[in-house]
């Protein structure tokens, strides 16, 4: 009976350890005073975008003194295969170019190239993409035409590329390097190009998840941990497919709350890169591999990872801390399982012994 008691005590201890560790993981990182960097990435400013909304949005960001990275689509495509330059058919209106030029002067607005005409060039059934699978020479023509156009019209250098639908391939990376683009901001794509010098700053969350993202980034080491909030005009649309003033004012409240937090710094994508730090291929690869790894998918606190940790782009250091915690949880689970098996085995053997005596 002494052995049963010992096993029971061990079991209870493991349960307590396991749950205090896995369920309260968020509290066990400890508090840090590092700055949390928040980037706002507004996609789909293009020939077809709503001028009223653009005006209102830019005014809000400038009034609150919050930098903004604008993903600009320079052209509309008529998809005329016979045209001498099939990628260009229409462009940004002078009104839109003037609006962009006006806000660039504030120094806290960055113009990024968001594709060329944001059309689907992929085959039905494949990943939706403007660039993936396109020959490198064609990608070069497309991206250079968009980059040159914006640089000439706006008198600013384009350093950031945002592929439509966050989709691209290793040829895109080579083209961006050739064109001296510094950074690509996409999603969690697995791309093989280890020798690239390009910087990677992926999107991490949408507007509803901002507070959760800030919360978790404040709890782990903030060093180089970045939050990239991606949004579109359609995020603010109401029932009539028009911009909802309620949604817009809620967004203003969120922005105001953020700007009141002492540990938050706002930057554009290019400001983050210019300030230095590790944003290379390797960090991006480790980040993607971590979230796609099999063991993360089977963790008991998977929800916690998906709903909170995924909202930030952790530094390599932060990612190591997170991995360490998760490995501990897995180890505790295995020990718990072993203890349970020992208990069952012991009880069964006693029962068999009793039956044998009769
Ligand atoms: Zn887009």
Description:
The chain has 358 residues and is of the alpha/beta class. The protein folds into two domains: 2-26 and 326-357; 33-314, Glycoside hydrolase/deacetylase (TIM Barrel, Alpha-Beta Barrel). 47% of the residues lie in helices and 11% in strands. The chain is built from twelve helices and ten strands. The protein has helices at residues 2-22, 51-63, 94-104, 136-154, 170-178, 210-219, 245-260, 269-274, 281-292, 294-297, 302-307, 316-357; strands at 36-45, 68-72, 75-76, 90-91, 109-113, 160-161, 183-184, 199-200, 226-231, 264-266. The radius of gyration is 26 Å and the shape is elongated. Bound molecules: zinc ion.
> What is the string of helix and strand elements?
HEHEEEHEHEHEEHEHEHHHHH
**What percentage of residues falls in helices of 4 or more residues?**
40-55%
Number of domains: 2
Q: Please indicate the percent range of residues in DSSP E strands (runs of 2 or more).
A: 5-15%
Distinct helical segment count: 12
Average per-residue pLDDT, rounded, comes to 86
- Extended strand count: 10
The CATH superfamily of the largest domain bears the name Glycoside hydrolase/deacetylase
What Rg is obtained from the alpha carbons, in whole angstroms? 26 Å
Give me the secondary-structure category: alpha/beta
CATH class of the largest domain: Alpha Beta
Distance between the termini: 20 Å
- The CATH topology name of the largest domain reads TIM Barrel
